[in-house]
Amino acid sequence: MNDSGFLVDYINSIHPSLDGILGVIQKDAEERGVPIIDPITVRFISTVLSLKRPKDVLEIGCAIGFSAGLISKYLSEGGHITTIDRYDIMIAEAKRNFEKLGITKKVTLLEGNATDILPELSGSYDFIFLDAAKGQYLQMLPDCMRLLKSGGIFIADDILQGGRIAKDRLEVPKRQRTIHTRLRLFLEQIANYEGVEASILPFDDGVLFACKR
């Protein structure tokens, strides 16, 4: 293990584990190999939302509902989460987890492809979390920025492809080159998006943090 691996282990060791039902969902997902947000990203989002206390949240990529469950802990009074997913198996498990967490009334789950659903949305959100198909991040960016309120926060997860994003396209395996190209364009666009302050944070597999001025 390199020094970075030891550092991640150390950071994870000093942060308290999630408790209650959310902690059970997290542990079960990790044991089954179900992709959910990593522990360091959990702490980052928790810290950001402790300050922001959003009321209107849009999540793109619900999966089993873990991240929506986490976000729900930091909603302001009357807050609501709109989340999107296209996979029936994930949707069914997410609905069960929302019931376990007692947040069913706080969450609206839209079923379908986010690239079809986002253009139809007309609300505005003070927090948007993007954790869906990485090859579609670039396509979804304009709608995310359109839907984000002034002063709103935008976070996109898993943006560095295990570090491959920094390599030349020809150094990346052929099957990953399309995503590599699209993610690079996504990062370049958001880093230079008018009216947006953005930072690329290289922990876990990379997190994009942005605020709309």
Short description:
The chain has a 7-stranded mixed sheet with strand order 3-2-1-4-5-7-6, sandwiched between helices. The relative contact order is 0.13.
Strand content: 15-25%
Rg on CA atoms, Å = 17 Å
Rough shape?
Answer: globular
- Class from helix and strand fractions: alpha/beta
Per DSSP E runs of 2 or more residues, the count of β-strands stands at 7
Write down the overall mean pLDDT.
94
CATH topology: Rossmann fold
The largest pleated sheet is described as: 7 strands, mixed
Q: Strand-and-helix sequence, N→C?
A: HHHEHEHEHEHEHEE
Return the domain count: 1
State the separation between the terminal residues, measured CA to CA. Answer: 41 Å
Q: Any guess at the CATH architecture? A: 3-Layer(aba) Sandwich
The side-by-side strand order for the widest beta sheet comes to 3-2-1-4-5-7-6
> What name goes with the CATH superfamily?
Vaccinia Virus protein VP39
Low-confidence stretches: none
Number of helices: 8
According to CATH, what is the class?
A: Alpha Beta
Name the helicity range: 40-55%
